[in-house]
Fold this sequence. Notes:
Layout: H1 3-29, H2 61-105, H3 112-120
Protein name: Secreted protein
Signal peptide: 1-29
Region (Disordered): 56-127
Amino acid sequence: MSSRDSGFVMLLRSGVCLVGLLLAFSASASDDLDVTMRMVMDGDALTDQVVREIELPTPDLEHSRTRDVMRGQDQSEEARQSGREFGQSVSEDARSARESLDQVRERPEKPEVVEEIKENGPPGLNR
Protein backbone atom coordinates (compact mmCIF):
# COMPACT_ATOMS: atom_id res chain seq x y z
CA MET A 1 0.00 0.00 0.00
CA SER A 2 1.49 3.32 -1.00
CA SER A 3 1.32 6.55 0.96
CA ARG A 4 -1.16 7.82 -1.59
CA ASP A 5 -3.51 4.89 -0.88
CA SER A 6 -3.21 5.29 2.90
CA GLY A 7 -4.06 9.00 2.53
CA PHE A 8 -7.17 8.07 0.57
CA VAL A 9 -8.20 5.55 3.25
CA MET A 10 -7.70 8.18 5.94
CA LEU A 11 -9.81 10.68 3.97
CA LEU A 12 -12.53 8.06 3.50
CA ARG A 13 -12.58 7.26 7.24
CA SER A 14 -12.84 10.95 8.11
CA GLY A 15 -15.74 11.38 5.71
CA VAL A 16 -17.62 8.43 7.18
CA CYS A 17 -17.14 9.81 10.71
CA LEU A 18 -18.36 13.25 9.64
CA VAL A 19 -21.48 11.82 8.00
CA GLY A 20 -22.18 9.75 11.14
CA LEU A 21 -21.93 12.82 13.37
CA LEU A 22 -24.23 14.83 11.13
CA LEU A 23 -26.84 12.06 11.16
CA ALA A 24 -26.66 11.82 14.95
CA PHE A 25 -27.17 15.56 15.39
CA SER A 26 -30.10 15.67 12.98
CA ALA A 27 -31.76 12.71 14.73
CA SER A 28 -31.43 14.33 18.15
CA ALA A 29 -32.83 17.63 16.85
CA SER A 30 -36.00 15.94 15.57
CA ASP A 31 -36.92 14.72 19.09
CA ASP A 32 -38.26 18.14 20.10
CA LEU A 33 -41.79 17.62 21.40
CA ASP A 34 -42.69 21.31 21.65
CA VAL A 35 -43.76 21.06 25.27
CA THR A 36 -43.67 24.22 27.31
CA MET A 37 -44.56 24.55 30.94
CA ARG A 38 -44.91 27.78 32.76
CA MET A 39 -46.10 28.61 36.23
CA VAL A 40 -49.28 30.67 36.28
CA MET A 41 -50.05 32.63 39.40
CA ASP A 42 -53.65 33.16 40.46
CA GLY A 43 -53.66 36.84 39.51
CA ASP A 44 -52.20 36.33 36.00
CA ALA A 45 -54.44 36.49 32.97
CA LEU A 46 -54.69 33.20 31.09
CA THR A 47 -54.38 33.11 27.34
CA ASP A 48 -56.65 31.15 25.02
CA GLN A 49 -54.21 28.26 24.90
CA VAL A 50 -54.99 24.91 26.40
CA VAL A 51 -54.52 25.03 30.13
CA ARG A 52 -54.71 21.98 32.35
CA GLU A 53 -54.54 22.10 36.09
CA ILE A 54 -53.08 19.09 37.84
CA GLU A 55 -54.46 18.49 41.30
CA LEU A 56 -51.93 16.91 43.62
CA PRO A 57 -53.27 14.86 46.51
CA THR A 58 -52.64 16.25 49.95
CA PRO A 59 -50.21 14.11 51.88
CA ASP A 60 -51.70 12.13 54.71
CA LEU A 61 -48.96 12.81 57.25
CA GLU A 62 -50.64 11.14 60.21
CA HIS A 63 -51.23 7.92 58.30
CA SER A 64 -47.68 7.76 56.96
CA ARG A 65 -46.19 8.68 60.35
CA THR A 66 -48.23 5.95 62.07
CA ARG A 67 -47.20 3.45 59.41
CA ASP A 68 -43.52 4.41 59.84
CA VAL A 69 -43.76 4.05 63.62
CA MET A 70 -45.37 0.62 63.29
CA ARG A 71 -42.74 -0.46 60.76
CA GLY A 72 -40.00 0.70 63.14
CA GLN A 73 -41.56 -1.19 66.04
CA ASP A 74 -41.83 -4.33 63.91
CA GLN A 75 -38.18 -4.04 62.90
CA SER A 76 -37.05 -3.52 66.48
CA GLU A 77 -39.05 -6.53 67.65
CA GLU A 78 -37.54 -8.67 64.87
CA ALA A 79 -34.05 -7.48 65.80
CA ARG A 80 -34.69 -8.21 69.48
CA GLN A 81 -35.96 -11.70 68.64
CA SER A 82 -33.05 -12.51 66.32
CA GLY A 83 -30.60 -11.22 68.95
CA ARG A 84 -32.22 -13.44 71.57
CA GLU A 85 -32.00 -16.47 69.25
CA PHE A 86 -28.36 -15.68 68.48
CA GLY A 87 -27.53 -15.40 72.19
CA GLN A 88 -29.20 -18.73 72.93
CA SER A 89 -27.36 -20.38 70.05
CA VAL A 90 -23.99 -19.06 71.24
CA SER A 91 -24.80 -20.17 74.78
CA GLU A 92 -25.64 -23.69 73.62
CA ASP A 93 -22.43 -23.86 71.55
CA ALA A 94 -20.35 -22.75 74.55
CA ARG A 95 -22.07 -25.29 76.79
CA SER A 96 -21.39 -28.15 74.35
CA ALA A 97 -17.77 -27.01 73.94
CA ARG A 98 -17.33 -26.99 77.73
CA GLU A 99 -18.79 -30.51 77.97
CA SER A 100 -16.46 -31.80 75.26
CA LEU A 101 -13.48 -30.24 77.09
CA ASP A 102 -14.54 -31.96 80.31
CA GLN A 103 -14.53 -35.27 78.45
CA VAL A 104 -11.02 -34.60 77.11
CA ARG A 105 -9.74 -33.71 80.58
CA GLU A 106 -10.60 -37.15 81.95
CA ARG A 107 -7.39 -39.10 81.50
CA PRO A 108 -7.49 -42.81 81.01
CA GLU A 109 -5.40 -45.06 83.23
CA LYS A 110 -1.88 -45.72 82.08
CA PRO A 111 -1.30 -49.15 80.66
CA GLU A 112 0.85 -51.61 82.62
CA VAL A 113 3.54 -51.44 79.95
CA VAL A 114 4.29 -47.84 80.88
CA GLU A 115 4.70 -48.75 84.53
CA GLU A 116 7.06 -51.59 83.58
CA ILE A 117 9.18 -49.24 81.46
CA LYS A 118 9.42 -46.79 84.34
CA GLU A 119 10.56 -49.53 86.72
CA ASN A 120 12.84 -51.54 84.43
CA GLY A 121 13.86 -49.02 81.78
CA PRO A 122 13.42 -49.41 78.05
CA PRO A 123 13.29 -52.96 76.73
CA GLY A 124 16.66 -54.39 75.77
CA LEU A 125 18.67 -52.06 78.03
CA ASN A 126 18.03 -53.78 81.33
CA ARG A 127 20.47 -56.66 80.89
